[in-house]
Amino acid sequence: MAPTGGGLVPRGEVPGAAAGGTGFRAVLDVDHVGQVLLAALGPQGWWPAETAEEMIIGAVLTQAVAWENARRAIARLKAAGLCSLAALAAQSPDALAPLIRETGYFNAKARKLVALARFFAGKGGLDGLRRAEPAWARRELLGVYGVGPETADAILCYALSHPAFVADAYARRVLGRIGVMPASATASYEAAAAWAAREVRGDAAWLGELHALLVAVGKDHCKKTAPACAGCPAASLCAYRAAGTRAGPGG
Ligand code: SF4
Fold this sequence. Notes:
The protein is mainly α. It has helices at residues 16-19, 30-41, 52-61, 67-79, 85-89, 93-96, 106-122, 125-131, 134-142, 149-159, 169-178, 183-186, 189-199, 204-220, 239-243, and strands spanning 9-10, 27-28. 55% of the residues lie in helices and 2% in strands. Helix 10 crosses helix 14 (204-220). The relative contact order is 0.13. The chain binds iron/sulfur cluster (SF4). Iron/sulfur cluster (SF4) binds at residues 174, 177-178, 217, 221-222, 227-229, 232, 234-235, 238, 240-241.
């Protein structure tokens, strides 16, 4: 879909300007939002990892902590020769924990890394999960100690190339304010994931790019309080901005 700035309205909503303009109406969907953001911001190059295994390790390490902390812990694991699932599967959590201390909850995260590495070993490695049916792979991942829905979807999308949408707080806030994600779906991760499974289309490469673009907008513009709409690449599409309100989903 070619990116355009105006004339589109969020599903179920008809802003006065669009309805009273040329009479043209179309449905604003997530794909269009993504195309507009991609045209404005360019490819984001996610996930920041050299290998799929490093991506998986980073997905655990960055839970509830800034990426910079996770990045430093990954560097330490690399220096110790432990930045692979095979190496982690052979470790004890107690031996691993001191190397990832700066990622917070490091004892729990060491347990999580070892559990996840052993899970992959028991499922035929990355290739075994890549060949699996996506919904089954998601259920299996959610059964691993320390893997919640956000971590599972990130691994599915960025490491296993399954078409999973990462419905994190950034995605819910940005899409909710723009008006393409209904308020009922912004309320929780799983509600948003269920909505995305029905409404968002694309392969893993596109869904991964879309998530990265939404994170960029969420970090730089669509902050939880007082969003910086001036200069936001989604401003021309956004119902929140059009309404001129400071309250809204996630706010
Ligand atoms: S225009 Fe404002 S409210 Fe809308 S997505 Fe951008 S920052 Fe968020």
